[in-house]
Design a protein that fits this description.
The chain has about 450 residues and is α+β, with helices and mostly antiparallel strands. It is built from 14 helices and 20 strands.
Length: about 450
């Protein structure tokens, strides 16, 4: 058996990154091999305990919470093989995305697309549908070419388009419901350069030209600052290079001062004195200036996030996003709410993963955030009302109130996933309260 974090049967409380979810498992195990993990699952099932694997806790939902056996897969880490001919890399499930990105770059390789943070484990990120923004390239889970999964009876199942294809279709984004992922094979490509162009733009212009920006750029996203008509846009496109990263002063001002240091201070002030937020937002949204820089992908796609927050994000049909965003702005203006975090808008092409938020449809995402410790329920409830009216699908790892009945309506293949779960985990060894709510009994 793996060593427990504090003795094999100790009851160590677990909390997620945002601090809004906690659980006290009966025991925590950190298996050092796949065999030890299989044994831990078998033993838990024999004892009638449920099992959940948890990565770095970057989800805002209780997807990984359990009162049974908590598996920490961090010892199962690192690249196990690279196939340059096939253009794939196989990694152990506990590998942190940052470590994967650095190791791939050393090998002259890169993922095609990624999200905007890289603190998560590869299995946690893919199992909850972590994504960036892309016209042609989709979420991290959509870049999976194969995976291995420990099922409820302790078997190790190998899945790809050729082997167990029906499990592969679902388990790339399985919310932890089908088993514990132990290994993932990603499609990779030779390392390339991206040129990022960041530019302030008015809300009316960016929403009027949204489709144009998405069509003309490989990766387009923007942030709108509530209480203002100001946005910041970011376009990432491939270039010949060479690397021309932001100068140290520019990088410090944008990434550390504005995104972390000053942002932390103004959010603390806003939490203490909410009336100051609109004025702060006007100043903050005007402080960002246009800049262009070129670097390897992970240095352009990702940035440090040290200011803690709570987040809700919904995937909408792409043609509905501008209308929904305008409704969100009108709601904030009307409500007297004080929102100190920008609203983030990104896109993804349709994919073929059963419960992917972009499954079967061109998608755009709207993410709303609140500083940790600030009451967020009123804002999120009002936002969610708008998003669901447009047929939105919530991110599996972010705050939402939807249940299985709702998901059955917005996911055409929902029954396919639940039938597979019934086959792979009939006794709900991998169940918990969150999965009962979103997938049903």
């Amino acid at each position: 058996m793996g060593t427990a974090t504090a003795g094999q049967n100790s009851q160590t409380a677990w909390r997620n990154w945002a601090g809004n979810v906690s659980a006290t498992p009966a025991r925590t195990v950190t298996p050092a091999s796949v065999g030890e993990l299989q044994e831990a699952v078998r033993r838990a099932a024999e004892e009638g305990l449920r099992v959940k694997a948890v990565g770095t806790g970057h989800s805002f939902t209780a997807a990984a919470a359990t009162d049974g056996v908590l598996v920490r897969p961090q010892a199962l880490a690192g690249i196990t093989s690279i196939d340059r001919v096939a253009g794939t890399v196989t990694v152990a499930a506990g590998t942190v995305l940052k470590d994967l990105n650095v190791a791939l770059a050393r090998e002259g390789l890169s993922l095609t697309n990624m999200g905007d943070i890289m603190e998560q484990t590869v299995s946690g990120a893919t199992s909850t549908g972590t994504h960036g923004t892309g016209r042609d390239s989709a979420s991290i889970a959509a870049q999976i070419r194969g995976l291995e999964l420990v099922t409820a009876d302790g078997r190790l199942l190998t899945c790809s388009e050729k082997e167990n294809p029906e499990v592969f279709a679902a388990a790339r984004l399985g919310i932890g419901a089908l088993g514990i992922v132990t290994s993932i094979t990603f499609a990779v490509e030779p390392l390339f350069f991206l040129t990022a162009r960041e530019e302030p733009m008015g809300f009316d212009r960016v929403t009027a030209e949204f489709d144009e920006h998405v069509t003309e750029n490989e990766h387009f996203e923007f942030y709108w600052f509530p209480h203002t008509g100001n946005c910041n846009t970011k376009r990432n496109n491939r270039s010949q290079g060479p690397a021309a990263p932001p100068g140290p002063v520019s990088a410090w001002i944008e990434d550390e001062l504005l995104s972390n240091g000053v942002f932390q201070a103004v959010n603390s002030l806003g939490r203490a004195v909410p009336a100051t937020i609109p004025a702060i937002a006007r100043v903050a949204s005007r402080a960002l200036s246009a800049r262009t820089y070129t670097d390897i992908p992970y240095k352009v796609f990702t940035s440090p996030r040290r200011v803690r927050f709570v987040e809700m994000e919904y995937a909408l049909p792409r043609e509905r996003v501008v209308e929904a965003l305008r409704e969100l702005r009108a709601m904030v203006d009307r409500s007297g709410m004080r929102v100190s975090f920008p609203v983030e808008v990104r896109t993804a092409p349709a994919d073929d993963i059963t419960l992917s938020t972009a499954s079967g449809r061109e998608t755009a995402y709207i993410a709303v955030h609140m500083y940790r410790g600030t009451p967020y329920q009123a804002y999120f409830t009002a936002a969610e009302r708008i998003f669901t009216a447009h047929g939105g699908r919530p991110h599996w790892g972010k705050v939402h109130t939807r249940d299985a009945e709702y998901f059955a309506r917005v996911y055409p293949r929902f029954a396919e996933f639940t039938a597979l779960r019934d086959r792979l985990d009939p006794d709900r060894v991998f169940g918990n309260d969150y999965l009962r709510r979103v997938l049903g009994e």
